[in-house]
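It is worth pausing here to work through a concrete case rather than discussing structure prediction in the abstract. The textbook approach is simple: state the sequence, then state the predicted structure, then interpret. We follow exactly that order.
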Amino acid sequence: MELTYTHNELPEVARKVIEMADSKTYLFYGEMGVGKTTLITEITKQLGLQYPASSPTFSIVNEYELENESIYHFDFYRINSVEEAYDFGIEDYLSSNNILLIEWPEKIGDLITNDYNHITIKKNKNGSRTLNLTPVR
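Step two, the predicted structure:
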């Protein structure tokens, strides 16, 4: 699925991403400042989170509680090796069967082996964004 959108269309884009997703794991790729966290914040809102999600850049992971499950939002920008992910227990999160929203997944190599949604966001010259979502099995 490919979508081009502006900031005003973000709620509809988040709904479509959730509808098109084949698993609870979402991997977000894109340059710094492209809008990964902004989209994730809207996705968590659409999933029922009652307060705005925030970037886990310094904490690496934020946990948000929904009524029946948790959302784990990761930002791996600051990690330097896969070993750092193991140090904070990434394998427990990956096997938790909760919703995983992962920014900079390329920093953790091939740790994600289950089904996931590959989401790439690019900023266009006119300020809009183009999102590509590909389910991976």
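Step three, interpretation. The chain has one domain: 2-136. Residues 10-20 form the longest helix (11 residues).
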